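>> received
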Amino acid sequence: DVVSREKGLEKDVIFEAIEAALATATRKRHREDIEARVNIQRTTGDYDTFRQWLVIEDDEDVEFPSRQINLQDAREKSAEIEVGQFIEEAMEAVEFGRIAAQAAKQVIHQKVREAERRLIVEEYEPRIGEMLSGTVKRTDRGDIVVDVGGVEASLPRNRMIAREALRPGDRIRAILCDVRAESRGPQLMLDRVCPELLIKLFQLEVPEAGEGIIDILAAARDPGIRAKIAVRSNDRKIDPVGACVGIRGARVQSVSNEIAGERVDIIPFSEDSPTFVIASLAPAIVE
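>> returned
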């Protein structure tokens, strides 16, 4: 009950871990290489132990007689048994001693980790493409480990803004680009060089963009140096460029500060391609 509450695990997962530990202890006690199963009564805590034989085809050689049996021999004990199932026989149960308890503890820890990682995948997979905020924790072989709401995320070196000096304790924003179900290391992969980050930052900083009054139609970046976004207003009364720049450049400056001082040009979008291209290439002069 305590472990279930503390770790947020189903009780059955913990019972299965203890059953697995007792089965392991049973196998170690036996001289032969046997297969065993333990069943714990969920209400009383009593448990029964069964020796198992895997049922294989009649024409297959029995490589491990201590844990395999042909179908014909198996059907003498149980008429309805099929290939791939187990024939079981009750055997003496081992005591739940110190070694079994240690084994159970290790299995429970492993199950806890697996369950926690599974929950992270379930929670964050639908959020791929979202912008997340986090705190820099440490450097790991050149990559940055970021704490995102109590979950460790990785910002790989090739997804970091060049020459950006991130230190432990720094608050950063990044795009969640991938969620990995691996058994080791951070599962969440972050990205600070993709154009999507620029768009999300403007949507956060410019209320009109967040509400859909202004559309950010495209973004391009040379991370850490220069960036451009193309904007269009859905309301004739609102100037999209002015809204994104803000009073005395406050809004664009706030975005720029978040991405290591990257200079951002805001370009009015035009359906007329030559006009849009000329605006996009500014400050270069188009002949």
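>> The chain has a mean pLDDT of 88.
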